[in-house]
Every structure is written in C-alpha cells, then in structure tokens.
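REQUEST ID: PR-0412
SUBMITTED BY: lab tech R.K.
PRIORITY: routine
TASK: structure prediction, single protein chain
INPUT:
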Amino acid sequence: MTAAGGTVLQAGYCFWYMRRGKNSNKEPVTAKAEGEETQGASGAVNPYENSIKIIATIHSVEQFWRVYDYLMRPNDLPTTTDYHFFREGIKPTWEDASNAKGGKWIVRLKKGLASRYWEEVILALIGGQFTGIPDGEVCGAVISIRFSEDIVSIWNRTAIDRDVTDRLRDAIKRILQLPSHVHMEYKPHQASLQDKSSFRNTQVWKPKSLESRESVRGADGPHRRSGSWGEREERPKPKSRDVERAWR
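STATUS: complete
OUTPUT:
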C-alpha cells in the first residue's frame, strides 16, 4: 500500500536502544554520535525498563530507511549494548502483556557477523517474510552485543504452542540461511523472570541428525546450556554468501 508518506508497512515498528553500565544514559547510536541480562526484581524500580530508550517509530518503508541509515551498525556498537526492533505498542520487556506468555529463539554469532544478520532479521519483519506464522505472533527482535559473541533473539507471543514455536524456528533458519548443523536455543520469558536472565538455562534445539550422532557417541543429559558455548566451529562459507560464517 502506497500513501503520500510512502509505502505503508503492515504494522508499525519501534527502534529501541539500551546500553548497560554506568554510561547507560548516554546514547551513542547514530553515525554522528559517539554480562549478563537482567530485568530487575518484581515490585521494585526496574533499572532495565528505565534504561530502554526509544529511538523512533516507523510506519513506512521510507521511514525505516531514514532511521536505519542513520543508526550505527551493530558491529560498531560498544559491548553490552542492545538494539530492539518491536511492533508498535509492545515494549521489549518480559513483563509486557504481549510478551508475558511468550519466549524467544536465540542464535549466537561469531563476532563481526551481527550487522549482516540483524539487517536480515528486521527486513524480514517489515517485509512479512515470516510465512506460516500467525499474524502478530512475532513481537520483535533484539541484537545483543557482548564480549565474546553477539546474539540475535526473535521474540514470540506463545511459548506454550510447540507447533508455532517450531514453525518460527524453521522460518528463522530459512531467513538467515542457517547451516543444517546450527544449534538454536529457546527460552520462555516466564523462565527468564524466574532466573532473572536472558541467556542462561535455555532449551537447546539440535537437528535430529546431530542428536542421533551424539546418541551413538554416548552423549546424554538434558539439552540445556548455562553460560557461553565452547569452541566455535569454523565452516566453509556458503556459495551464496560473501562472508565467512562461524556458528556455535
């Protein structure tokens, strides 16, 4: 749909920004400017929520590019910085009504790949590329810049619906063209509220072929993780890509 203001999106979206630490109130997010996840305890002043800053709200393709072109790319952001890109009306917190019963899929990236895959995710959101997923099920996405890795998270509304979460996982794999051996992780927001973390104690999904090989080798125990992945696996770059990928 095209209007006087440009090509209108199916839904409005908001760019958000957060930087942890003593300089969190400073916002080095534009091209002209310069741990662990927690969202505070229930019933107390929430430092996480107070530190989230909205950058802009967009309703058209043209507005998107005006904002996006002005922002620093994730690869250039300081460590412990997050960008959030969420549907208008949804705040990027676990407690938000649209998120409270949901969760997120997590993809961990080698340093240096964040900008490319963040762009692919948010373009897929505004372009309606999450086919097969109910309208409004995907709430938004986050890119988290950390010391040893960067993390892309895609948030959805209904963690309890296994069919929907599995279809969302497959859509993410397709959109990001993830290699078949990639591990993905899922964590319901209710679990995050309980352990006060975003990326610890996640449920790890592995391709069935990989699970079978590990079973033959005697791998056992629940598919959960705590802390960071171990050694990265360097893989040859796909022919369709001009950048080397390394996944955990």
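NOTES: The helical segments are 47-51, 61-70, 114-126, 162-176, 189-195, 208-216.
REVIEWED BY: pending
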